[in-house]
Amino acid sequence: MRESEYPLLQDFIYEAIFIPEGQEKPPRDIVLRPELQVYTAGFGRYKDDICLAAEADDKIVGAVWVRIMDDYGHIDNETPSFAISLFEEYRNFGIGTAMMREMLGLLKERGYRQASLAVQKANYAVKMYRRLGFEVIDENEEEYIMLFRF
C-alpha cells in the first residue's frame, strides 16, 4: 500500500470489526476510539509499520497491516500485531488468506521471530488463522490471542 493510501486504513479497521449475526454495525465514528486508533494513527512513521493491499475492480478492496503496538494481540515490543480486513463483497474468495501468507513471508524475510493477533472466538477467521499456523496462546471470555512463530 502506498503512503498516500494509508488513510484507507480507517475504512479497513471499521470493516475489521466482527459483527456477530443478528447484531447491527456500530456507528462509523467508533474508529476514533483510542483502542482502535492504535491500529491506524500515524501509520507509516515507524519501521515496523508494514501494509499490503489487495486490489480488484481497479480499487483497493482489502488490507493487511502490522505494527508493533499495544493492541488486543500485543505480546511484546518485538512482535508485530496483525490487522486484516476486506470489504464484505470480497470475502470468502481466498484473498484474506493470500494477503496473510504474503505478509507472513515478508515478516520472515525481515527477520521477525513471531507475529500475533487477537480475534473474537466467534469469528469465522479463526479457522483461517489456524490453517496458516497461528496457535492460541491465551484467551479471555471473548477473544483468542494467537501467535505465529517463524
Give a verbal description of the structure:
The chain is an alpha+beta fold and 150 residues long. It has one domain (3-149): Aminopeptidase. The chain is 24% helix and 27% strand. The chain has 4 helices and 6 strands, in the order ααβββαβαββ. It has helices at 8-16, 34-37, 95-109, 125-132; strands spanning 50-56, 59-67, 81-86, 114-120, 135-139, 143-149. It has a 3-stranded antiparallel sheet with strand order 1-2-3, with helices on both faces. A 3-stranded antiparallel sheet has the order 4-6-5, covered by helices on one side.
**Whole-number mean pLDDT:** 95
Which residue ranges are poorly predicted, with pLDDT under 50 across at least 5 consecutive positions?
A: none
- Main sheet: strands, sense, barrel: 3 strands, antiparallel
Q: Kindly report the oligomeric state of this protein.
A: single chain
CATH topology: Aminopeptidase
What is the ordering of alpha helices and beta strands?
HHEEEHEHEE
SSE class: alpha+beta
What is the annotated CATH architecture? 3-Layer(aba) Sandwich
Question: Beta-strand level of the residues, as a percent range?
Answer: 25-35%
Shape: globular
Q: What is the CATH class name?
A: Alpha Beta
Beta strand count: 6
Distance between the termini: 24 Å
User: Helical region count?
Assistant: 4
The Cα radius of gyration reads 14 Å
> Widest sheet: strand order?
1-2-3
As a percent range, the share of helical residues equals: 10-25%
